[in-house]
Amino acid sequence: MSTSLSPGSQKPLLIGVILIVGFCTIFFVYYKPKLSWLPCHGSSENPKIKTCTDICLGALDIANNTKPVDDTVFLVWMYPFGHKHSLTSCHSLFHIEGCHLTDDKNLYNNASGVIFHHRDINYGLQNMPKKPRPPHQRWVWMNAESPSNSGKIAALNNLFNLTANYRQDADVVVPYGKLVKATSDSDFEIPKKNKLVCWVVSNWHPNYARVKYFNELSKYIKVEAYGRHFGRYIDHNDYSSLMSSCKFYLSFENSIHKDYITEKLYNALRLGSVPVVLGPPRENYEQHIPGEAFIHVNDFPSAKELAERLQFLDKNEEQYRQYFTWHKHFDVKLSLFGLEHACRACDYVRRNQGYKVFTNLNTWYWG
Fold it and tell me: Is 45 an annotated catalytic residue?
């Protein structure tokens, strides 16, 4: 059985609806409710949002796809050492959304951030922007070299907002490499070995700590050394096979500084050689990789005792294999120099809209 309201009974209902709508309209026009108890209330954290209505409407816009994603324009002012890198790979390589990298300096005024490579900045700052910096824009100082290999420029103090560096206390941290969760449960196979200790060096200086240590170590154990100084050049294509064929690799840094742990370590790890490291203290290395994945020269009172340990491990396969157990849990991922700095710096700028300035760059980096 169907029922319907008579015309006489519909009239009071219609009047009631009109009164309710009118009351709500007057209420929201003349009464401004306090919403401080709501998480979306306008505050010092986000003063642009005044009421929950703004959030709700914004959510509806996104749900209806009526509001496009607003890309953050990020300007690469200078390519590191002049080597160009991709400007379109932030999403595909690092899963970073909303970043538009460009090297078009005509977009300077539109850029939310600009990145500068320290080693390419002129001492007189002649190649820095001549236009005033827009108030919203952040300047990012980028450097992957150690303080010993980077000239200090006094004028850089009070110039930048952010730092992009290998150091863990940088705003944007981009180490030379890192360990990530293993993507496969398959057992790692140690490559076949036909060399005991290897070293490939391009920058030779007799006063370097690593050169002095190598000279002493060589008195007690044979080191297959390659590079211009030794007249034994290694082609880039042969580097991986050489590294894999060595039981131990001298991952010696050219200078010793906090967190300065370069690809010399990570290449040895990923190619199946046990790294023997010379660099910052063991404790610093263990902030980046497991302690059982490497041998530190500081673990031994002398180079002679280190040589004896390497010779012992050469004859004790079971103990040698213990240096590879970390492969069950982790894989090695190398950083992409330049591109990764730009992408991660852009992402930082996009996510952190507040004002920030870095006033003591020279003190922080060079001490």
Answer: no
